Every structure is written in structure tokens, then in C-alpha cells.
Amino acid sequence: MHAAGTDDALEAVAAGCRWALYRVRRYVERHGLRLLNTPREVGDLFVGVDEARHLLAAADAPEPPSGAEALRRLGLLIVEATPAPPPEARGPLAGLARRFDLSPLDARLLFAAAAPALSLDVARLYAFAWADFAVKQPSAGFLCELVTDGPRAAIEAQARFRPDAPLVAGRLVRLNPTPSWAPHPPRLHCGVTAPAPVIAALRGEPPFVPEALAFAVTRVPPPRLPPTLNPDTARRLGRLVERAIAEPDGGPRLLLVGPAGSGRRTALAGAMANAGRRLVAVELGLLPAEPTAFAATLADAAREARIGRAGLLLRGDRLAEHDEAAPRWMAVIERMRAHRGLVALSVGQPPSPLRRHLEGAVEVRFRPLPAGEQRAVWMMALGAVDAEVEPELPAEMARRYDAPIGVIRGAVLDAEREVALLHGAPGRPRLDADTLDRCVRRRLHHTLDEVADRVTTSLRWSDVVLPDEVMDALHRVRLQARHRERVLDGWGFRRLLSYGRGLGCLFSGPPGTGKTMVAGLLAADLRRPLYRVDLSRVVSKWVGETEKNLARVFDEAERAQAILFFDEADSLFATRTEVKGSNDRFANMEINYLLQRMEDFDGMSILATNFERSLDSAFKRRLKFRIHFPLPDDEARAELWRRAIPSRAPVDGAIDFARLGKRYKLSGGSIKNAVLRAAFEAVDRGGGLTGRLLREAAETELREMGRL
To answer: Per the confidence metrics, is the pTM higher than 0.70?
Structure first.
């Protein structure tokens, strides 16, 4: 806030405090008897015998002294007080009164409750007036008597502290039970305080998010990069924002529907910025789970938006992940109905309570970006950074990732900050693909690690020894994975594929023939993480739990832009059986769900099995590639023996690799194990690898497999 505005606000606070001091004087005039009944010094006992007699209407009770007489006997009558104007007539309090629909009496009660935090003089005189310095908060009853004249008006004012009254419902004041009345005190005896953001608003200070809400509530700055929405969606959202701001009751409630990262928050913040307003975002999934605490915290967040004349965005993606969230969704619905001002809810898929109870909400859909538009978004985002960017980088990033708008924009800003911090040479820093890759990965929030294990490899394609027909098939897999966005989206083939657009592969063959290794190499080549699905964390004995876990696997894989690897796939994708009991029926339900989910999955999945015949035929029809990894022949085994020995490993004498390949019919995995076994034996003997050690290790491998 500029200096002139701050000065005006402080002058309004000073004038209001003068009014509060005047009201204390009037209060003391009316209730001076209780002070006169105390000893020479005001103590904890503030109900004296004379006052008790008067309250009981005893025949011999003296008449209460007049206001001036009470002040004179207390030694406080110095000059007659000049009435001060009510504080709601000017300054920030007038703004709060407009935004929260406060009556003049509400505004006076609010300022009277906040006055001890605005002026030390008022705080000390309050304590003097109620004659108990041990009490630090004014009670509701004290405030009602303070701002009114006469018992009837004070009683009527007590209704301003009802739960549905603007002061309490708007969270402008907080009623605090006093220990002596706990746990269910009447409103009359509750202490009344104004929260810190309200105190700051009365002082004319900029709005802020209190520490208790900072973990879930943020003030969204105007977007630095220009919006990259569909123009029709942007125009529609802009019109809705203008209407909501123009209407006193907040206009239409907005429902922003789309996948996480589709630009819902950024688009709304941009529309609000165009209208000269800010946006307050609340992460509903981070609010307390207990329904009452959830509703109270949500109301506090809504207060922050109204204080700053900002729009309120309720982000529901995380809350939608919780199973038992119906009571919290009802609190969200009530808050959206009651909020005065622009309010919007963003969610991927609105849960049923929202559909039933928010019929009047206006829905704005945010669709995923096609590959062509993703390149444009990358180009626009990278074009706005203060760094050197290679011309082909936007196209390269669009090829690597199927990322939503929010991830692209956030990753570019993160990468710009990172290269700026690390840049030490003169000139502009250089932003490369590896930096962007790390930043994108950080932005792709997922929990795939909880149900799958990350698989990495240090091998290269040059380490692979497979028949030419297998290598040709793997080359075709790489081609489809690299160019599927261009063919499906750029050439328009996606509209011809209503389902089954994912890239599913089946790797079959005996153990140790390279299935897992090739899966890792494909993932590394495509710059995608590879996750092996842990069946022990997916399959459950409880009905429906396996399907739920599988749904999470596929959902998180899409969010992580990962390749799924189902090792020992025959145990999960087995052939459906004839239903002879409930176990057969539930097992078939799991397989049917897998068939459906495989069709819906838009990413790449690899199934590896040693027993292809055990797989259900329906799965095989849905796989784009079925590649068999055979056991190597003599020549291939010789080459595997040769490549298994690193160049730095010491070798004593010549090794006949052709003889090893012809004599020992081992898979590639077993050959690797044999070479490693021989290496440890060589180190122990103090020499290098020899043909004899390799033969001994090969025979040990065969013996352990029961083939020798």
C-alpha cells in the first residue's frame, strides 16, 4: 500500500481508538459502582457488597451514583468528554464492512474487539473497566455493553455473536471459551479476539496469510508467462471472472475441470490479474482431516480472500484421492455457496457430492495438450527466459514428454533459476536439455515408488547380443515410441483409435535372455523412467483391492510419464478360467479390469514372461509387439563371453571364447554370473582371469541349475 493510503489508515485507527477510549469512559460512568466497592486499589474482587445489594433490589440498597458522581468519587472526572465519531465511518474498517456485509453495530463491535491489539492505552483501560487485570480478552458481554447505551440495546447486540452472524461466520472475530465456563460457555462470557490478518487490515497493512494457514494457502502472483490456453476457453473464463467481480453476491460459482497441471490455477490467476484482482489458492488435501477443523480452516482461508478482495480457488485434486472425504466435500459445497466473491473449485473429476449439490456451478473444462500444442507451449515458455536456448530444444522436450501446461511452465522457470544460480562465466547462462529434464521430473508429482521399483541400467546397446530379427523388432519398437505423437497427433491418426493407443510389448523367453536389460535400454533411449511393478504390493486377497491398486499403478505411471514393466507377467495376466466358484469369479474380474486398463493406458508398458502360453489370449491381441528372446546359439554365446569381461579386467593367457560358447549352453544372464564368479576367484588367488577359471565357473552355474 502506498504511503498516503497507509497514513489515512493509521489516522483512522487513531480516531477509532479515541472512540474506544470515549466508550470506556461511558462504560465506567455506568458501572462505576463496582469500582467504588473495591478497596483503595482495584483488585480481583470486582463485585462488592453494595453492588450485590443493589442487584438483589434490597430495600436498604443505596441508589447507584450518577455517571459524573461515579467518576468524581473515583477521581477520574477531569473534564467532560467530547463524543467521538463511530469508527466505521472511514478508513479500512469501512472497507471490511462493505466486503463482509457488516452493519454499523457489527463494525463497532469489531473495532472494539480489535482495539486492545491496536492501542496499549485501550488495552489497559479495558482491564481497568472490568476491574480484573488477570483477564486479557474482552468478553462478548463487555463489548455489547461498551458500544451500546442501555441494557436493552446491549442484549440486542448479543445476537451479533451468533455462529451465523457476519462477524463470526466471516471469521472476523473469534470466540474463546474462558476456563471458568469450559467446555460449553454461553456467548455472553466468551472472550472475543480479532485474528492477526484482521488487525493488519484495520491498520491498512497489505494482506498476508497467517502462519497457521501457510502450509495450505497461497496468494498466487499474476502469471509471469502469457496464458497458453485455448482462446475460446480463455475468453469464456475472462467473461465469467468479470461477471463474478461485478455482482455483489459473487456471481456464478466456477468448476474448473481438467487434469493436474492443465493450467487451471494459472489461467484463473491471469484472468483475475486482467480484472485488477489477485487470487488466493487453498490446497484442500492439506487441510485438517477432521470435518469440523476442516470447515473452520477453510473459513479462515475464505476470510483472507475477502479481506484482500481476491478470488478464492479451492484446489481439490489431492482431496479427491482420499476415500473417506464426503464430509469434507460437503464443507466445500457449503463454503462455495456462502462465499461472497469469486470462488472456483479445480478438480480432475468432480466427485458425486459436487455433481448433486452444485447444479448451478458453471463448468470450464481444460483439455490435455496435443503434441503440436505442447511444442508451442515449450517454445513460448523457453522464449521468455533470460538464458541461451538451442533452437531445437522445444521440439526435443515435446518429443520426450507428454506434459501438461503447468508442468512445462514450472519446469522452465525452475531451470532458469537453476542455471542462473550456477552460472559463473560472463554472458547469459545456457539452458540445456538435461537441466530441463531434471526440472520436469521434479514437477511430475507421483507416488509410483510406493507400488513399483525404479529400474536403471548402466549397459549400452553395444552390450546386447541378440539375433538380427529380434534387434529389428526392437528397432521398430523404438521408432513407434519416438514418433507416435507425430503420427497420432500431427498426422491425425489418433481420432481413428478410440482405444488401445498405448504401446504394449510382450517380451517372452527363457530366464537370462536379456528381457529386463532390453527394457532398461529402451527406457534410457527414450529418456523415460522404467518402473518394475511389485506384485506383492499390488495383489491383495481382499475383494476389489487388487483392482484399486492396479488403477493406482496406471494412474501414477501416466502422471510420472513412466514405462511400466511387468516382470513374471504370467502370474498377473494369466488365462481366465471357467467359473466354478467365487475365487474364479474374482480372479476373472481382476483380469477383465487389467484388459480394460491396458486399453485405456496411453503410455508404454512391457510384459516379460518365461511362459507365454500362460498369458490370456485377449492380452496378446492388445499388444503392439510380441518379441521372443531365444537362448543364444554357440556363436552368440562366444560373443557374450567376450563382452562380459571388462577391458580393465586382467586376463592371464589366451581364452578360447569359441570353446566356451560351444561347450556351455548358458543364457546371457548365466554367462554374466559365471564371469563375475570367476573374477572373485581370480582376485582371491592373486592373479587374473583364465580360461580354466571361466570353465570352472560355468560348470558351477550348470550344476546349480541342475543341468550337470
So the answer is: yes
